[in-house]
Amino acid sequence: MAKDHPNLPVQKAEGCYYFGLNGEKYLDFTSGIAVENVGHRHPNVVKAIKDSADHLIHGPSGVIIYDSILELAKELQSILPSPLDNFFFNNSGTEAVEGAIKLAKYTTQRPYVISFTGCFHGRSVGALSVSTSKSKYRKHMQPSWLTYQLPYANPADCPEGADCEEYFAEKLEEDAQLLFKHQVEPEEVACMIVEPILGEGGYVVPPKSWLKKMREICDRHGILLIFDEVQTGFGRTGNWFASHTFDVVPDIMAIAKGVAAGMPLSATVASKELMQQWPLGAHATTFGGNPIACSAAIASINVIREENLLKNTQDMGSYAFEKLNQLKTKHSWIYEVRGTGLMIGIELRDPDRKMDAGDLVMKVLDQCLEKGVLFYLCGSEGEVLRMIPPLVVTKEQIDEGLNVLDEVLQAL
Question: What does pTM read for this prediction?
Fold first, then answer.
């Protein structure tokens, strides 16, 4: 991790900015990799953390019970799609995914899991078994764990002249039937797990019909549907969750990243009916649901409400897309701009094929950073610039960042 890009030394962060060792100011279009949705060190979150530390630093939940974990459960119930109202609190997105897969296997008593090519669900062995965003993550790991993969619906693969909504719904039906015919009986499948928007794999937004067809297939065969909303949650898409954006409700959800404004917290989420089938001790945690992290999460959710950040995400997302599409007409290296809300992917390609797309992205990242703007990368070959600013971002800040991107592309 210490060799990740760009290994930028900072002393402080505030709002949409990092501050370097000598007072340098960097506009943060990464949100700490989709974590700081309410901005760095929001004063309401800082106060909640300090107040909480005056009372309690550690749980462990279950051995003791405390206000912040109960209040957070209530807050989450109010923003998650019904009937998802029960929570197992963890520390990270990977743990939330592990819990989701374990819950599905336990309650269905079925051994197999289906995931989708290009999705990223984590790096622990269970989560890695369903992660296929990059093969290097799986090297030497043999992460079989009784999993199968189906293709992710990438609109770029839609045949010319076809209706993408119809095409990908029909294709998923065909792909699933082939899998069930030749490799695994559907009655043996515990769950399907998917990122409703492809994250680390390249910021690909699938057609709504594809996710609805997935829900239909799962219902038909008694398979549980898991949404990995680690990156898409807490306003990132312009709704509380991508489940709302696509109008598809999963049986289990993994949430993390933006939940607690930088404190380590995640949750495996399901209905009470499903969750209570898990007996005491079948799953457990020492640090999950930390009282300070829960307090930060409550404050963060309230900030999103009080500052109307869902609306700001929709408005600023539309504005950013408008500006980026203008840049696309100006710079032939911008191949595609995609995403929703403030989850934006900018795919770069050299039309003359003189430069590898991954190398091009790294040059752009480095030169943007020299001018004070921090982007990140994603995609199977690192070909996509990830633009995920805090949800408090303003038009002026979007202009600031994209003007730098324009200058860098022009110079290159």
Answer: 0.96
